Amino acid sequence: MTRMKRSLAGMGAALSLLAVPIPALASPASDAKNACSAELRRDYNAGTESVTVSERGYDRFVVNGSAERRGDYRDFNCRTENGRVQSLYVSGMSRESGSSNNTGKAVAAVGVAVALAAIIAAASSKKKSHEYDRYDEDRNSDYYRPSDSGDSYRPAGGVICYRRQRACYNRYNDEYLSGWTQHEFRY
Amino acid sequence: MLGFKMLTIPALLVGLVALPIPALAQVAAPPAVTKPKLGPEDTPALRAKKREAAKRLLTLLKPVWSDEEIGRIMYIGWYSAAAASCDELEIDQVKLAKALETFKPADEASLSPERIKFLNDNLLMDVGMATGWAMAGHYRDVPKFCAEGRQAKTQLAADKHLFEMDTPAPAPAPAPAPKP
To answer: Rounded to two decimals, what is the model's pTM?
Structure first.
């Protein structure tokens, strides 16, 4: 864990190099709209339509509109302050991914990473009646694949590479394959 | 961007002598991935869980980062995970900083401080998640994972991986000349 902390501390230090404040050019209203749209994309995997922004003073805004996910439209209400989302509510739509960013992202990172570890660990438990036991292992899941179907290729059995991502994965369990990535894209 | 820069110069040189890129010396092809046999350590449920974890991770990255940036986040995450899991592997902080610097937006001057902070926060979070994902995916096969890491460290050029290189032990001090 100490090693992990050291790695993350190094990342944090490096990231501070990028954190140079630049005067804002966008309007506060569009910042509010963008913040809400980003939150919807991130936490609900949803796009936005018919968005309206109402100013509430002191750099606070209320953003309303429709959230669209796979053809399903739901009303959303989003409140921002100083360009940050304070609350986001989508009527009748559950979160699909991510976590609320009301608290520090670093904390969320640890939490989600632990959650991911827990997912894997849970699979090793003695419980075999999980719904994933019925999962079709050969199902082609395109959730994150680049939209261009010609983007991928298979340099060897069980290996699938994505040109735009410049990365290769194990076709059976989606593990990242560092060796094949190096071989194909020479980072 | 880092990978692009690395590829650009060799590609130009190759173009000058009209040789196809595959003619360049390449890293030996890793072995094909064989379809895992079912066993207590590798069940359809575990595979499905791994795919689900990948899905969750990539679904989080997709709205924020381009495909190429996602590839670089996975690259950093894999090396960070190997360094965190394997005693003999350490991340080279200079290389890591260089890799992270490639995420600096080209149009940064036109971005608001909030947007820059958003990107920085997400980069930190997403590299952390990619690291956690890679660690979680390999916690059952740490020796194999570490062997892959050692292989990358020893077989790749130093600027192709993020590991710290071993510093050679200092040469022993010369024996004092005998006094006349």
So the answer is: 0.53
> pLDDT tens digit string along B96-153?
999 999 999 888 889 888 889 899 999 999 999 999 999 988 888 899 999 999 999 9
Contact B45 A133 (CB under 8 A): yes
DSSP helix/strand/coil, A101: coil
pLDDT in tens, B39-67: 555 677 787 888 888 888 888 888 889 88
Structural domains of chain A ordered from first start: 25-90 (3.10.450), 151-187 (no CATH)
B139 in contact with A at a CB cutoff of 8 Å?
yes
CA distance B172 to chain A (A): 31
CA distances from B49 to A27, A120, B43, B73 (A): 43, 6, 10, 21
- CB atoms A187 and B116 under 8 Å: no
For residues B107 and B112, give the distance between their C-alpha atoms in angstroms, rounded to a whole number.
11
Q: Which helix (H) or strand (E) holds B98?
A: helix B93-101
- Where are the alpha helices (H) located in A79-139, listed in sequence order? 105-123
Q: If you count residue pairs, one on A and one on B, with CB atoms under 8 Å apart, how many are there?
A: 292
Which of B49, B66, B138 is nearest residue A119 as measured by Cβ atoms? B49
Say how far apart CA A58 and CA B111 lie, in whole Å: 22
The tokens describing B4, both together, are 């692009």
Burial code of A13-34, b = ≥16 C-beta within 10 A, e = fewer? ebbeebeeeeebebebeebbbb
Contact (CB<8Å) A3/B84: yes
